[in-house]
Amino acid sequence: MRDGLQVYCRECASAYHQERQLAKGCNVRPRVDVPEGHKYCRTCGEIKPYSEWTKNRSASDGLATLCRTCKASKGRAHHLKREYGITEAERDELIASQGGVCCICLAALPVHVDHCHETGRVRGVLCFSCNAALGQFKDRPDVMRRAATYVEGNAWKPTLVAPGVYQLPS
């Protein structure tokens, strides 16, 4: 109207709009009654308090469209796809094929996807410690072999063969 007001109240205008959308065959989300201080997550279908939501200043209510739990799971799935090109199901298949343990230490729960930094190929799923160790060795097999030799007790010391002539361990 000229005065800037509608003829109908918000609830009636909203109900009329939904009826029109249904008549056109459009998909209309059902209304969910939510108590004060709570919000409905369309992903998980739960009503949660405002404390379970992250902030979004551009949204009309100041809260994100996904609850913290759904946002975290969606973020993990997108990270796997973006960084390694695999889905959560493919990662779970890798873990199952490894027997549910880390490929290297054969003891800990595997949670980190290991990949070749040159080719990007996924090699397996490792525990935190083994994944960090590979990173520290910069994926260099020669350095890892020397480290294994060192740990096994064969110190990396030159052997005196003749006066002034030393032989390095192989």
UniProtKB/TrEMBL annotation:
**Molecular-function GO terms, alphabetical:** endonuclease activity
Key words, A-Z: Endonuclease, Hydrolase, Nuclease
Coiled coil where? none
Q: Name one Pfam family in it.
A: Endonuclease_7
Origin: domain of life: Bacteria
**Protein name, per record:** Recombination endonuclease VII
Lineage summary: Bacteria, Bacillati, Actinomycetota, Actinomycetes, Kitasatosporales
